[in-house]
Amino acid sequence: MKRTVKKRTGMRSAAALLAVLMAVQSPLGRTGAMGMPQKNQRTRMTATMSDAAAGEEALAGLLEERNGILRVEVQGVVKAPETTWNVELYPSEEEDASIAEPAFGSLTLPAGDGNTYTEGSCELTELPDGTYDLRMEPENDTVSYVAYEQKGIRIQGDMVSIRLMNDAPENHGYGESGAGSRIGVLAMGDIDGSGAVDEDDKEELLKLAASGQVHDDLFYDRADLNGDSQVDLADVACFAKYYKEDVRTARETRTMRITEEEIHTASASNAEISQGTVEQLFSGAASLTLESEEAISGENPVTISAEFGSGKTMAGFVIDPVDGSGNTIVDGTVSVETEKGKEKVFEIENGKVKERSLGRALLEFFTGKEETVSQGGPIVIDLKGQTAVKKVTIKVSRTLGNTALVDIAKVEFLGDMKERIPEPEMTAPERVQVENGDASFTVTWRRQPNVTGYEVTVHGVNSKKNEVTQIFQTDKPEFRAEGLGDGALANGNSYEIQIRSVNGAWKSPAAEAVGRPRAASLPPAPENITVTSRYKGLSISWKDMMDTDSYNLYYRKYGDSQGAYTKIPDIRENRYELKGLEDKTKYDVYLTGVNPLGEGPESVHYTGVTAALDPPVTPDYKRINVEVPGEPVTAHIESVRYGSGDYKGEYDIVDGNYETSWARIDWDSGATYYDLKKAPIVSFDRSYEMDTMVVIPDGEQTFSYNKAVLYYWTDRNDIQDSTKNSVAGVLEKKTSNNKAYYEFRADRPIEAEAVQLVLSTADGNSRRISMAELKFYYYDSLEDEIMDLYGDPYHVSLRPDVDRETMGKRIQSLKDRLDQPDPVSGELHPRKEILETELANAERILKDGALQAEILAVDSKDTGNSDSHITFKGGLNTYQPLGVTARAGETVTVYVGSPAHKTGDGTRLQLVQTQYHGSSAAWTRTLGNLKAGANDFTLEALDHMDLERGGQLYVVYTGEAGREQYGVRVSGGTKIPVLDLSDTKDPAERLKLAEAYVNGLEAMVQDMEALHNRDHQDYSYDEKNCIYGATDIVSRYTMISGPSDQILEGLSGNTAAEKAAALEQSMTAMDQMVELFYAHKGLSTASDAEPHNRVPAGRLNIRYQRMFAGAFMYAGGLHIGIEWPQFKEMVNGKPVIADAEGRYQSGSLFGWGLSHEIGHEINEGAYAVAEVTNNYYPLLAQARDTNDSLRFKYEDVFKKTTSGARGKASDGAVQLAMYWQLHLAYDMGGYNFKTFDTSKEQLENLIFARMDSYVRKPSSAPGAEGNKLKLSGTDKDNVLMRLAAAAARKDLLDFFRHWGMEPDADTVRYASQFEKEERGIWFANDENRVWQMEKRNTSQETETSAKGSVPQGIIQYVNGENQVNLEISGDTNVWIYEIVRCERDGGTEKKQSVGYAYAHDGEAVFTDVAATANNRVYTYEITGYDKWLEKTEPGRTKEVKVSHRGDIDRTLWTVSTNLTNSELEEPGEDHPDTYVQPGLEKMVDLETEGAVTTFTGSVKAGQTPEIVLELNQPELVTGLVYTAAEGTPIGKFSVSVSQDGSSWERVPVSADTFTLEDGSQTVYFHDGTVLYTYDAAFVKLTADGQGGRELSISDLSLLGQTGDNVEMDAAGMGRLMKDFAINGGADGVIPEGSIVFTGTYKGNPAYNVVLLWDEKGQIVGGTDADGNIQAESLILAKVPENGLLGEVSDGIWIYYLPEGTSLPEHVRAELYRVDDAETLKGQRTVSSSLTITVPEQLPELELDPGSGPAAGNERLRKRDGLGGRTREGEKN
Hints:
The protein is of the alpha+beta class. It contains 24 helices and 97 strands. 14% of the residues lie in helices and 35% in strands.
């Protein structure tokens, strides 16, 4: 095989070297015709020749002059009815229809009987060059064939053949590769005519077959697949061939087109033509049968000849036999006359051309075996290049049956030899199997040869609803997926899996599979259920739950405890509209989830009230625009002006009709972004004084309003933007008839002739605002006069300027007025109850004096406005507890006082209500803004759970820090204990406050049930849900909002004082922990802290919350959720005591869970990795500067950092170690609990403090002009690498690469401006850091260094194993070694870290396991690191070639045998029906704790001992290893394989009797010439003729594929003594004096090539000015029977150079493989040889083809002492 070679560029090293041009002269390489037989193959293959440059132009010119032909050949190989096919050919879409037109034809496939093959064909002629799509359909609809389609058929003036069968070719003697891969399949079984063979067809067929009756219908005809007029099991068996099989299209076969007209003369002599014509034979149109009068022989030959009108340029031709004929050519000659008159004769012997190639000659000479061929195959005439042929003569001197007949199917003329090259072995993963688990799947596949690993791509939607594609690497043929991107795998979701083999940059085609994780438990109870009222219905939605396929909804009338729940099953979405209920009725609702395991637990019960058509009832007291009977508009309305929105009539919003309305599809109608045209403007008939409005939304309004502003005009005739006035106010949502409406109360009364109320919804996603009715109310001074009785904003004293008597009269007058109804509506004041309370309060103060009420001072330092620099402020809140809990529906009055505000003024305070024990989705709501004076609020239900609703109240300050003063008093609700230690530092004062709080807690807990039963009788008492259990504890950084009972239970001590002390200590520990965390985020309270580095004002709110499914605790918006049993742990912390350097002494900063959730809240989002980086904080809280105080093991960490594997570690704990190592390497200012007094010290000593500070202010990071820190436009990994480089001021990319990360170009550029970190900080651990701090700045700093030393490594390797043992020695200060595997690949060296080894006095041992790659030469680079993490100089070992035998993983194997021994167990309780033989596992368990285990047993005389290995998955098996370390070994044996365990095939073996050496022997499936590979699920070892004797088996191993291999023999190099003629000179010669290198290879010569390299990484032989390599190569293989090259187990290669070529001192061989022999696509190195020294004096060699292994013949004759190595620059 000859190859043209050019210098390779980039990754395509020696790309052109790998072009496979069969036996055609070119600058490098030649292959003799060789290959491997394939078993059980019955095929007619076309052998062709590759184009050579000399003939390409002539051939191309010939083809351009003519149109092409498409020939479709169909072969019937199974029993089936006769079918006529319509054949249609259309130009592909991209083709110009004006050039190429459709072509049509038909063919008939005769009925088949299953024994004799039938054929039909069709030719479509005169086809212009182009690309076409083929479609074939049966002409009649009574057959069940599926239409056949094939796209992209190229026509180029030649004849293209498409071959089809009506069954899979491999079922009829064809291999899966080679010929079988070229044949398409016509599928049957489309019973229903749907165009596919599917489940519906199967059902229909089984139904018809089971009935046993004949039906007169189309379905029955189509179901009769074999055409025997009945539908039975035979048809079912036939159907199974096609059911669920992928569509298989044919591969095009190209031949030269020669028409009958171009054959000038044609003749046959000495025989009569009984079928066809000679012209038809040579044009490929029909077969030819000749009959002689007597048997054809050498004395009575038959001759057929054809002469062409002009010379036909071709590379060769194939004489095809007629399949199954006994009259095919065995002996004869073929003579070819060229256009120049030269004649070449090819002798045919035993059905093949006798001409001997160099490859065959050498193979026979070296092996001593002559090639034998089967008869009746295609005869390939190879013209060795493009040749203009004038005449072809075929003389037949013997046929297969020695008959007087000769059959020839056709003669195909070939333009090139491409067809001879088999399909490449793409080593794509095969036999892919997926095992689905809980939120995981494991995918396995068959191990592939010639690869270095595998790439697994997973695509799908993860548990966080994100669609992710992620690539993973593995060096084993299995992969377990548990996570994807930023989330876990979600049960029930489908994940697309693609697996590729990899070898360097090369990747195979993908094998595809689908993973679908399945739940291992029942689904969780549905959560976050929302119930919304509808007319006679309820709209119910809920959280989309994990592990849930569907939902069941249950409901009944509320309170109907005896009534049954109605069930709505199989709801597939997370919402449902429940209809047909009674109106104005309360219902009890709950849900369950369902998955394949069953129905899960009930959710919490929820309630909902159905709505009626009745509108909400709103007050008419003092209403201006009352309804006027018979009028289309309410009173006093003059007009309504709409600038935008949807409406029908002018008065839709003031007509008293709730079915008419105005709506705007927007989230804002002017309250946030004002525009005159956004909302309706209502004009009155005159000016009115008003302060209150009511807006009723329409029935479709689902979004709530949260903001309103009132604009007004004093002149209704001058309404424009410039004349408007505005007033703010309070917008309050209310309900009536289970419908919402809103009341707006202006901060002051206005006088207006026109008004415009503008609104906003909660956020930009709530895009709808509507008004069904607007109601306006006269200003009534009664409320203001009542409020004016008081002398302070908190209503604890009366006005001092009014005397007692006058005040009494005034109060009585106001009481009388409050009792007076509105004269128009007859209604009393809508706030009568609240105002009566105010008057009663005033009377009490008048009688008893000022009230001693508690006024809460609002802390104006606690404001979110101070936290604009905080990147995690979404996890904090600035709630200030009011010490009050209140029920949903309860009205509370909040009094606000401020020196800077008068009553009625707006303030920067908001009132927040919460739900005690709430859900993460519905636990808080801002009720509204507070004004100075009294503010009344009615609490809403925040969720629909059928549990007690209500919770703590809070006030929030929204102004600037420290700018304003406010006091607050609450009237209503119930007081609860609150402890505020945030501003108290004095220990005694803190203890005093804590003790008072504990006393209050104990009192509340004691009285709680009684209080509940008194006040909350609508729900039975439940200590976990009673709102009186609520309490708040405030510290500097946190607020604990929890259950009183659990807080008390969590406090140690018996007395209140002891518990108070424990509580105070715990809160101190809480602040200490958060302060530690903030320090590592660069946040400080120190005065020198820059604004972006100041601690936040907001607090971490640790709340008692209801857990969602799978949660123990959780981090949510504004809070951290903790459940009942865990809450006691929130008060059991103990402050950490550390020495001045930060060494831990005592204390405990809570458990992992709390700090884990705090980590989620404060995680730096710029580089955060969920469930990883947040764990840095609990690690800080728990680490004690020891390796055993961590959540990960450093053995696992170092295994990752020295694995060379890209991508993150699969274990999140190990991932965390990367961040921790940055802390260990650069935080050298103290131990873990070291604190710093200033922000400057903090930033100088903590790397993450600097990193997070740079996130908050990137401009503060170091960086040269034009190379500043940039955090946008890249992923989190690159952000982390850039931040770390900036913070360390070091190039840390080596560190991150050890962790499997790959920086982008911008990251490399940014990091490169810093000094490279030379230390091996990927080996940092806690105790190492402690050692460094202790030894720093001492004399031991230099005494303990190993820097500059060089380790030594000695290799111990046992041939055939896949592991290399290293014995390492070095400096005694070395602490740990890193081992790097080095491999030469072409001119470059590849390095991969493969592991580490701890040193003891400088010595270590290490074992490298080559899990995937094989037949490679490695050296090892060993670098030591001392405890300073400084590295030694790298040491290098000698070469080792790892060639393992390919042991197959035995994890899943099952052993069975008929051998028994005395341990045989009779049937018993555990196995009542069977005998059991213990100890069988000893045959496959290797060694157990270092000891060999052996099974010994026997069978009776006359029986045959058998051992069966059930592999439990198909494997490719090439041999076995038998070990008998003790006892009696097996002697004569045989091996069989099976796919099902019942049908066995005996395989050839390299030896049939075990003759053990060292107790073991390896046996290959080899027949002396070919190494066979079997696809087996069972392997049976039979001890032939050894019944009646004990046999011992210590171990059985099976061997798989080992991949390609190359070896170079030092004795096989030298100078050629004389010219060596290749193929008798037909292919040129290797000239005398040439420098020759030889060796062996294992692989496929069609896709392999050998190249030699020197020690400098240069190609041996060098290159010329054009980059062509100055060397040539032969790669030799055996001629295959079917014309295709196959795998070779012992091929020979020759590499030769011109005489005088300079030689290097050392050479080595590399073997390459490609996917495409012409384009060189997929080039990769698959094997390498050991380096060999070139001798000073080269021996002289002679290549002698010989004729066989005669005695005395030598394969290479050599004579020493002639010539020698030529140094560069010297002459020979």
